[in-house]
Amino acid sequence: MFKISSVQKWKRHTHAGNEAFKNKFYLSAMIYYQQAIALVEDVMSDEKDAQLQIACLYVSYQNLAELYAQNKEHDLAHNILSTLCDSIMSELRKVSVTPNKRRLLTWALKQASASLCTLKKELNTDLSTLSNMCERHLLSNTIGV
What we know:
InterPro entries: TPR-like_helical_dom_sf (IPR011990), Uncharacterised_VP2110 (IPR020206). It is a single chain. The protein has six helices and no strands. The chain has one domain (6-142): Alpha Horseshoe (Serine Threonine Protein Phosphatase 5, Tetratricopeptide repeat). It starts with 5 loop residues before the first helix and ends with a helix. The longest helix has 25 residues, at 99-123. It is flat. By secondary structure, the protein is an all-alpha fold.
């Protein structure tokens, strides 16, 4: 019997979430995106292609954060982006990270940190915790983690 890979499952949930989002079925999109996030750990352990691993990690969290931001749930968007940054940092701290995977993770961290900073600017508020989060992630990235 043919077993569906974790990447194939992830792609199905992500595609379904994107279709739901496009059609403004936000609750369905949220559920699909959360299911995609739940599959990321399996993808990270099962998949050998570092680029695919990092793409699944980044896209899963970014999609959900965008959905929350679109629906003016900025605290939830912030939490998701913070979790993404923390997940990336956790991966970067692993001893077994190859140079290529480190490069890809660093790219993803820059993108996630930029999204956090953009969210702060869009809110146009003085959210010191959000500002500190942006600075912490950008600083840790520039000093080589």
